[in-house]
Amino acid sequence: MAAFRGIRSSFLRPTCPSSSAAQLIFLRGIATRLFVKAGVSFSTTDDTFKEAFSKYGEVIEASVIRDKDNGRSKGYGFVTFATSDDALRASDDMDGKVLDGRVIFVDLAKPRREFNNSMPVARGPPEPVEPAIDN
């Protein structure tokens, strides 16, 4: 697993050493973003989220996903780091830790799936399954 992390981080190095934080996020894509799932407390704010993860490196953005109707936390959020090394270190260290009285689980965020909204996917009826005949 450690070898995989080394290979993964070597592919995510910026091409220009004088890149800004925004350019680094663009170049490295989703590898600098963490998904914090299943356990974010209702009392956790974006600021406490950012403060908890900032000891691992420069946090570009920290957001707790909230319900639109009542404003309460949905129990998950995202943290974006300036470098992939910081994100990997934070993922390893914060996974299974307690934040605001609840255990959180941290993983690298997966890219959003793109759907073509112009044309729906047509699906036909399921194919019939022939019953098994025991002899």
From TrEMBL:
Annotated region (Disordered), positions in chain: 116-135
Keywords recorded for this protein, A-Z: RNA-binding
Domain RRM: 23-111
The keyword RNA-binding is assigned to this record: yes
Family annotation (InterPro entries): Nucleotide-bd_a/b_plait_sf (IPR012677), RBD_domain_sf (IPR035979), RRM_dom (IPR000504), SLIRP/GR-RBP-like (IPR052462)
Alphabetical list of SUPFAM superfamilies matching this protein: RNA-binding domain, RBD (SSF54928)
Protein name, UniProt field: RRM domain-containing protein
PANTHER family xrefs: HETEROGENEOUS NUCLEAR RIBONUCLEOPROTEIN 87F-RELATED
GO molecular function, a single term: RNA binding
Naturally occurring in which organism (per UniProt): Trapa incisa
